[in-house]
Amino acid sequence: MDVRILKSSFAVVERRAEHAVKFFYSHLFWHNPAIRELFPASPEDMERQRDRLFAALTHVIAHLEDEGLVPYLRDLGRDHRKFRAGPQHYAAVGTSLLAALAEASGAAWTPRVEKAWAEAYQVIADAMLAGAAAAEDREPPWWDAEVVRHLQYGEDIGVLTLKPHVPFPYLPGQYASVSSERVPTTWRTYSIGNAPRPDGTLDLHVSRIERGRLSTALVRDVQPGETLRLGAAGGRLTFRRADRPASLIAAGTGWAPIRAVLEDLAEHPPDQDVRLFVVARDAAHLYDRALIDEYAAACPWLGVTYITPAPGQHRNQATDRLATALGSRGMWPDQDVYLSGPPLFVEGTALLLEGLGARPGRVFHDSVPAAGRGHGPNGRPLGFGEWFLARPSPHWHNPSGRSPGDRP
Ligand SMILES: NC(=O)C1=CN([C@@H]2O[C@H](COP(=O)(O)OP(=O)(O)OC[C@H]3O[C@@H](n4cnc5c(N)ncnc54)[C@H](O)[C@@H]3O)[C@@H](O)[C@H]2O)C=CC1
Questions:
Q1: For the chain, is the Cβ count within 10 Å smaller at the N or the C terminus?
Q2: What is the DSSP letter of 143?
Q3: Model pTM greater than 0.80?
Q4: Which whole number is the average pLDDT over 305-318?
């Protein structure tokens, strides 16, 4: 790949980003009407989708020389099997992408630039398709899972227990992408709130987001007996056993992956001391406090600090209180830290910890996009391929019986 040409070409395209993205989708849908069906129907969701394309492209360009790029792309390809993305879709997207880049580049679109982009796209598509092919024999494209229990805490928090129809592999601390027939074409990631169980069930902790259609459906509408769909598990919030202390810091339903990690540690005790900070907007949102207290009493290696805002204060004042608590503890350079919670909380706390001396390579968190922002400076890798076919409707109950574009 000619990285130099790609970067300078991208700098030109970047100035006309909005135009390029609109052109891309118009071109794609005009030439491939059936693909339109795979993308969100609502203008609002489609708008987010547009943002994703550019975020995605920016991400690729920023990581062109990264050795993690190909493994990541392979993983992404594996995950895109849930969209039933086939070689023909990758080809269609590639053609429209080149057309959009040419359009936005104007006179800067030379044969050399075109060649560089075509080659780069081929590398991306090949890596994703290779990842998909390698997964083909190992696992299904997605897992259907029955809701077997639905607990609601207050207005906005739901804990759903799912029973996948076939075993769903994951590690404590990982998340899965989730889709419901109630909100077709929408996938969101939710952390799994337990370590793997013998009966194969898993818990999703969902905090309802204002205007979040899937989170609202999951918290308020979904009933036991319904089927949800899961994409392959992912994420880096898995515990590293080491001979130094560790801190687990959870805010809101960011508690879910930390709970899974703790469950596993309780089963297989660590040699290191572990300090748990649980931050919540109020006492009612410390919905698992009884369980945490049990762990604290039973596990000599565990210490727990609960943090809520002072009475009458805004929920985010809990974060200020956490900052004070973290500042008063030393040893940050010698610790592993696991962070989970709202994106701005995670971003801010990671920076604070670095300021306190924590080593960036020892602060672990998933990067998740802030709700409504689509992506953040530290956003979850939106997947510089998510725009390939993100949010299409997977063919719901009988995948093999439908051709792309059929409505479920
Ligand atoms: N792996 C991960 O990192 C996971 C992240 N999450 C994310 O956690 C969030 C959970 O939301 P809720 O439970 O509704 O949390 P919440 O809105 O109740 O917030 C909990 C606490 O986080 C802090 N906080 C929230 N927004 C903040 C901000 N902008 N700046 C500083 N501090 C802030 C405050 O102290 C607040 O009391 C969701 O955004 C979800 O995507 C959820 C599960 C796993």
A1: C
A2: E
A3: yes
A4: 96
